[in-house]
Specification:
The complex is a heterodimer of chains A (518) and B (62).
Chain A: H1 10-27, E1 30-36, H2 40-50, E2 56-60, E3 78-82, H3 86-92, E4 97-100, E5 103-107, H4 108-121, E6 125-128, E7 130-138, E8 142-150, H5 151-155, E9 166-175, H6 182-189, H7 203-213, E10 215-218, E11 221-223, H8 227-232, H9 242-260, H10 269-279, H11 291-295, H12 301-309, H13 328-338, E12 348-350, H14 351-361, E13 374-377, E14 380-385, E15 390-394, E16 396-398, E17 402-405, H15 406-411, H16 417-429, H17 433-439, H18 452-469, H19 487-496, H20 503-511
Parallel strand pairs in A: 1-2, 1-9, 2-6, 9-11, 12-14, 13-17
Antiparallel strand pairs in A: 3-5, 4-5, 7-8, 8-9, 10-11, 14-15, 16-17
Chain B: E1 3-7, E2 12-13, H1 14-20, E3 28-32, E4 35-37, E5 46-47, E6 52-57, E7 59-61
Antiparallel strand pairs in B: 1-6, 2-5, 3-4, 3-6
Classes of the chains: A alpha/beta (518), B mainly beta (62).
Chain lengths: 518, 62
């Protein structure tokens, strides 16, 4: 008998569930932001971060989302919001009414479902029934992801389950786990921070304090909502939700600032321009801005994203002779990078292929040695070395255009040998790597290093000399054109040497043979 | 090191020039009469005697 529904059987239904879940999960093993906890602050943060085109995953231990936002308190489903929290209710289209001056009430199911729907509408994805198990910590103790497992696994005795967790990587993690402050507590277990435990209830104070304390507590980890009470010993939260929503909003702002703060943006470009004008008198120096925004047509974004994603190095010990077709998630990630909506962290690209892609962005009339195009990026790239048959991270690739990686400046030149020896000891002993960095303070260029612009000037000059005389480098270790492979050499050549350029290169600059070039 | 100017003595294709200079495994750009291109884009392009080709070798640093 023909029914009203499509003739689809069990196998198609099951296959759809499995493949759709697997595809999405595979895509979200690498995110811009992972939020642990799907209550009001986590949902609010996720909604606002995802709204900017950023890749957000909320990990929720329950099957349902919304935390305590369904119910106001004591199993009664009316939620209260104190002024100025009603602004968020307006934004989400949640009906409410003012009970007394500055105190508002809404139906919990309506409020909560609207918030969840808004998070979904803005692109947040969810891993529900998923329990936070541990953190991924990378260089310097930076939080770089979470370790998770199925919630039911944690509810069963180990002798029955014995299922290993899996890890998800993210540029940022947000702890929105409520009073449990599970993520921060895990850091505390590792001796990387301390928590004070939440104090007694005091509604008049607690909400303001939550907003004041919302922020990053450790590199890569932001805390929002009630977890802040536990971290900072603030009064516990009562059944009012304004601070949860507003704290989520603040956490999102902080997260977006962090996600958008490309290292290249930390450069003082104007300072570099002034430096070039001083060194290369009569040469016209121009700042163009983001090459994707300038030269990539809207309909070329997807193809460019696919090409960039295909330059990603999967294994530093294997030369990629023919590129594999990138995964959908990798292309989407690069698309957001091109559109300036996220930044790459921990992704390694083939520097020569990347350089070729940037070449294609240069207007045809400017693809010549008459122009010196210098492109700053915070993408980390590497080039293949036939001698030891592996990729090596690089600071720069000189060609048309020349590319200088600010991340490469931190990651490519080797740090002092003692640093690596001590780092091994620190890792074995579980000690704080930030303390180790402090011991070597100044010995190498680090992220957000205030010396970055000054150092980059030397690399810019290498690009200039490459274009003008064909060779970017100098053998003199005190010259800014020295091809440093150790951080100590970088610091000396760019900051510590008594002179900027060796005699030969200084003379070339003074003679100004390139006056006719642009 | 990075940029070298070569005068073409006899007619040949871009590919023949690259092979002759043993540059097939090196990433380079070529500048011919002000037009810069990757050799693999124009392998069969015929270079005439008297043409000046600039070989721009991509160099990595750090």
């Amino acid at each position: 008998m023909a029914g009203n529904f499509s003739p689809v059987g069990e196998k198609e239904v099951t296959r759809t569930i499995v493949s759709e879940f697997a595809t999405q999960f595979a895509e979200y093993v690498e995110c811009d932001c992972i939020i642990v906890g799907g209550g009001p602050s986590g949902l609010m943060a996720g909604r606002n971060i995802a709204r900017e085109g950023t890749k957000v995953l909320i990990v929720e231990r329950n099957n349902y989302l919304g935390g305590g936002f369904w119910i106001g308190g004591y199993l009664m489903n009316k939620v209260t919001i104190r002024h100025p929290g009603e602004r968020i209710l307006d934004e989400l289209g949640i009906p409410y009414r003012e009970v007394v001056g500055g105190l508002f009430v809404a139906d919990g199911p309506h409020a909560c479902s609207k918030l969840i729907a808004s998070a979904c509408d803005n692109g947040v994805k969810f891993a529900n029934m998923t329990i936070f198990d541990d953190l991924v910590l990378k260089e310097g103790g930076r939080v770089a992801g979470v370790v998770v497992n199925w919630t039911p696994i944690s509810a069963l005795p180990k002798e029955i389950t014995c299922v290993d967790p899996v890890a998800l990587e993210a540029t940022l993690v947000i702890d929105a786990t409520g009073h449990d402050a599970q993520v921060v507590r895990k850091l505390e277990e590792r001796g990387l921070t301390t928590t004070k435990g939440f104090g007694a209830m005091w509604v008049e104070r607690s909400e303001d304090l939550i907003l004041e304390h919302t922020g990053e507590v450790h590199p890569g980890l932001i805390v929002t909502g009630m977890a802040l009470s536990t971290v900072y010993g603030l009064p516990r939260m009562g059944p009012t939700f304004g601070a949860m929503l507003l704290s989520g909003e603040i956490a999102a702002k902080i997260a977006l600032e962090k996600l958008h703060e490309g290292a290249a943006e930390a450069l003082n470009i104007e300072g570099i321009v002034q430096y070039l004008r001083k060194k290369l008198k009569q040469v016209e120096v121009e700042v163009r801005g983001d090459p994707f925004a300038l030269y990539l047509p809207q309909d070329g974004v997807l193809d460019c994203a696919r090409k960039i994603a295909s330059t990603k190095i999967q294994d530093a010990t294997r030369k990629a002779s023919s590129r594999q077709e990138p995964l959908y998630g990798e292309i989407e990630y690069e698309k957001r990078r091109i559109l300036g909506k996220t930044r790459a962290f921990g992704v390694l690209y083939d520097g020569l292929e990347l350089q070729r892609l940037f070449f294609e962005l240069i207007p045809r009339g400017e693809r010549s040695l008459e122009f010196v195009h210098i492109l700053f990026t915070n993408r980390l790239f590497a080039t293949w070395d036939e001698h030891d048959r592996r990729y090596h991270a690089r600071v720069s690739v000189y060609g048309i255009p020349s590319i200088i990686s600010t991340t490469g400046l931190v990651e490519a030149p080797a740090k002092p040998r003692d640093y690596y020896l001590l780092k091994q000891q620190y890792e074995v002993l579980g000690k704080d790597l930030l303390e180790l960095k402090d011991r070597f303070k100044g010995a190498f260029i680090d992220y957000e290093d205030e010396r970055l612009t000054e150092v980059v000037k030397g690399y810019v000059m290498q690009a200039v000399f490459y274009s003008l005389v064909g060779d970017p480098f100098c053998q003199d270790s005190g010259c800014r054109l020295y091809n440093a492979h150790w951080q100590e050499e970088v610091v000396f050549a760019q900051l510590g040497s008594e002179y900027e350029f060796c005699q030969r290169h200084r003379k070339l600059l003074e003679d100004g043979e390139w006056a006719s070039k642009g | 090191m990075g940029i070298e100017r070569i005068e073409i003595q006899e007619e040949k294709t871009v590919k023949e020039l690259i092979d002759e200079l043993n540059l097939s495994s090196v990433l380079i750009l070529l500048d011919l009469n002000g037009e810069v291109f990757y050799p693999d884009e124009k392998h069969n392009w015929r270079l005439k005697a008297g043409d000046t080709v600039t070989v721009i070798r991509i160099v990595a640093g750090g």
